[in-house]
Amino acid sequence: MTWCDTGRQQGAWFWNWHVLAGAYLLVNASSGYGSHSHNPNVLYVQPGQVRA
Fold first, then answer.
1. How much helix, strand and coil, in percent to the nearest 5, is found in the chain?
2. Which residues are CB-neighbours of 10 under 8 A, at least 6 positions away?
3. pTM of the full predicted structure?
4. How many C-beta atoms surround the C-beta of residue 17 within 10 A?
5. CA angle 29–31–3, rounded 5-degree value
C-alpha cells in the first residue's frame, strides 16, 4: 500500500478481504511483524477497522 500523505510504501494485510489495486481506504490499523514475509513493518487491518 502507499500512504497518500507521504508516498511511503508499506506491506499490508487485510483480514478476510481483497482490496483492489488503486483503491483508497480510510482505516484504523496497527503495524507489526509479517511472519510470512519476514517483513518487520506490515500494516494489519481487521474488517471493523475499515472506515471508508
1. 5, 40, 55
2. 1, 2, 3, 31, 41, 42, 43
3. 0.68
4. 11
5. 70
What does the angle CA 50 – CA 13 – CA 7 come to, to the nearest 5 degrees?
Answer: 80
CA separation for the pair 50, 25 (Å, rounded) = 7
Distance between CA atoms of residues 26 and 9, nearest Å: 16
5-51 pLDDT tens trace: 888 888 888 888 888 988 998 888 777 776 776 677 888 888 888 88
The answer to whether 46 and 16 are in contact (CB under 8 A) is: no
Of the chain, the end-to-end C-alpha distance in Å amounts to: 16
Find the farthest-apart pair of alpha carbons in the chain and give their distance in angstroms, rounded.
29
